[in-house]
Amino acid sequence: MTTDNPPLTASLPKVSARAVVGFLVFCELASGFVQGFYAPLLGEIAGHLRVSDADITWFLTVQTLAAAVCVPLLSKLGDIFGHRRMLRIAVVAVLIGTLVTAFLPSYPVVLAARILVGPLAVWLPLEIALVHNRIKGETARTSIGLLVSCLTGGAILGTISAGVFSAVLPTLTLTLLVPVLFVAVSVYAVFFKVPESTSRTGAKIDVLGFIGIGLAMVVLLIGLRLASSEGFGSPSTIVTLAAAVVIFALWVLWELRVTSPAIDVRLIVSPRLGPVYLTAFLFGMVMFGAQAPSTTFLTADPDVSGYGFAATAGTASAVTAVVTILATVGAATFAPIARRVGIRAVLVTGAALAASGSLIQIAFHDQLWQIFVISAINGIGMGFLLGALPALVAELAPSDSTGIAAGVYNSLRTLGGSAAGAVFAVLLAGFTASGSLSSSIGGYITIWSVCAGAFIVSAVALSVMRMPRVSDSSSRKGDS
Asked: What is the reported pTM?
C-alpha cells in the first residue's frame, strides 16, 4: 500500500531535482572513494596493528558481512519510514566507522569500526529510491546511471589516491583521514540538501524476517569464505553451508506466510523482476568473482606455468583500470542510448558484449594486447549492465518498495560475487598439479567459460522479459 503524506511534502526543501541528483552524485563518488581507498593500504594497516596477513583479511570481510545485514534492513525501513532518514543513519554510521578506523586504536576496535562502515552498501539503493521518488522516465534513468558511474569512478579515484596520499603524508593516520573528509561532506549533503521521499508503504516491520535473512546471508558468506580457503568438501564448509540453506528455507516459508514480509519473495521470483534479479546474481558472479583469477593469470610466469605475462602490479592495475573506466562510461551513457534503441536492447547488448569478451579470451590469451582489447569489450558491456539494471529495478518495483527492490539487487550481486569467488578458487585448485603452486591453463579456460555462460543466460532472460515504456513525460511535475 502506498501512502502520500502531505505535511511531509510541504516540508521538503525548495531544491530542484537536478540539484538533488547533484548532491547524491557526490555521495556516490564518496562511497566509491571509500570502497577503493583501503585495499592498497592493507599491508601498512596490518603492520601498524601488528596482525598477520590472514587476520587483516577480516578488515574487509567484516564490512561485507555487516553490509549483508544492513542492506535489506535499511532499504525496507526506508520504504516504511523515509529513505532520507535511513540514509542519514547510514552516512553517520560510516562517518563514525571511518573516523575510528583512521586512528587505528587496536585490532578489535578497528574491526568494530569496519562493521559501522557496512551501511555504505545501502547508500545506492536508498539514493535510487530518492531519485525515483522525485523524477521518472528518461531523466531518472540518466540520473541513476550517473550515480552508478560515480560509484565506479570514485573507486578508481580512491585506489589511486591511497597510493598518492600514503606517499606524501607523514603518518598512516593522516592518510586514513582522507576518506573521512569525503564522508563528512556527504553527511552535510544528506542532512541539509537532500529532501525526504514522500512515498511510504503501510507494511509493518517483519522483525523475524529481517533477522532470518540477515542470519542466512552472514552464515552463507562465512560458508563461501571457508569454501574458498578449505574447499567445498571440508566438514566445516559443509556444515556452515548446510546451516545457511536450512535457515534460508525456513526464512522463505516464513516470508510466504506473513502479510507484510521483510522481502516479497513472490515479487523476486515473478516474471516481472525475476529475470533482472537473476541477471544481478550472474553479473555479480563475474564482476566480483573473477577479479582474483584475472590478476593471478596476468601475474603468472609463462616460463613456469606456460601462460601469463609475469605482469607487475602496475600492469595488472592497468588492465583493471581499462575495465573500470569503460564500465564507468557505459553506465553514464546507457540512458541516451536506451532512449533510441530501448532499455532491453542496451541490456542484451551489454550481456552479449561481456559474453563475447569471455569467449574471445578462451581462444586468444597469449598476447598482452589481446587482454587489453578483451578488457575494453568487457568494460563497455558491464557498464551497460551496471547502469541499466538498477534503473530497470526502480521502474519495475512497486512505488512504495523501490528501496527494498534496489537493496535486493545489491545483495544479490554481492552474493553472486562471493559464490563465484569460492567456486573459482576450488576450480583453480582442481587444475593444480600436486607439488605445484599454479593452476594449469585449463582452470582459467573453465572460469572464462563459466563467465561466458553466465552472461549468455542473462542475455536470454532479459530478451524474453517484458520491458516498461517510459518517457520524460512521466516525470513528476515541478521536478525540473
From this structure: 0.86
